[in-house]
Amino acid sequence: MSANKAxxxxxxxDVVNFLKPEFPHAERRASAGKNDKxxxxxIYNAKGSWALECKNVQRITLxxxxxxxxxxxxxAGADYYAAIVKRRRxxxxxxxxxxxxxxxxxxxxxxxxxxxxGR
Length: 119
Prior knowledge:
The chain has one domain (3-115): Trna Endonuclease, Chain: A, domain 1, CATH 3.40.1350. A hairpin with a 2-residue loop joins strand 2 (40-45) and strand 3. By secondary structure, it is of the alpha+beta class. The N and C termini lie far apart (60 Å). The chain is 37% helix and 21% strand.
């Protein structure tokens, strides 16, 4: 295994271990080439399932990372996707979660009824 591959595998494992207390079914997925379904599976919430793509690289290209996560979510049949990007010299809890604004809005939106707004 190359040093870069080992670095990526280690980061994926760290992300799974970080998520496990809240998402007990979180697990690393084996790479499947062009039919890849993301690096981490088993993440679910009330709005649906997630495909996560982990990146531990020196050159950060957010648009490529998000496009890859989106394609892998499609392959996995997941409702949502995000790229988890390792920050240099920071632990896994300080990694970045990157997604499109449109998806973020749909995740955090609540109705006026739920917030009591408009009363």
